[in-house]
Write a structure and sequence with these properties.
Layout lengths: L1 H27 L8 H15 L3 H24 L4 H22 L2 H15 L14
Helix pairs in contact: 2-3, 3-4
Length: about 140
């Protein structure tokens, strides 16, 4: 009877210590640590439509996108005060992301992916020369 009681007390104390550590972790970084499932799915579906992914590629890219978005949120939270460091970390993350995509995508899909990234990163000029002006 004593061993059951001592075992129960030991388990209870260990679980309360683990719970306290978990609370400390969430106190340091408020909010959910994982990106929203909807956002990950939306990005992956867009990539699937543009790059014509097969099912295995879709599953792999979904995980890569999940990790990228989680890490991006972490970088933006961690380096709120230091914009240069944040920019450098985001560039490093993008390079890692592109390397992961290179492992998953075929060469033709990878070239389409890079074209989409270039198009997304460069601003489009206004269609009408009078648009975008102040007056």
């Amino acid at each position: 009877m004593k061993t059951i009681l001592l075992t129960f007390l030991l388990v209870a104390s260990l679980s309360s210590a683990a719970l306290a550590q978990r609370r400390d972790r969430y106190a340091e970084r408020p909010g959910d640590t994982d990106p929203s499932v909807e956002r990950v799915d939306e990005i992956t579906r867009q990539m699937s439509a543009q790059l014509h992914l097969n099912e295995a590629q879709f599953i792999k890219l979904r995980e890569v996108n999940k990790v990228k978005l989680a890490r991006l949120e972490e970088i933006q939270w961690q380096y709120v005060e230091d914009s240069q460091q944040r920019t450098a970390k985001i560039a490093e993350l993008e390079a890692q992301y592109e390397a992961e995509c290179g492992r998953i995508l075929t060469p033709s899909q990878l070239s389409l992916f890079r074209e989409e990234q270039k198009r997304d990163s460069s601003p489009t000029p206004p269609a009408n020369s009078n648009e975008g002006g102040l007056g």
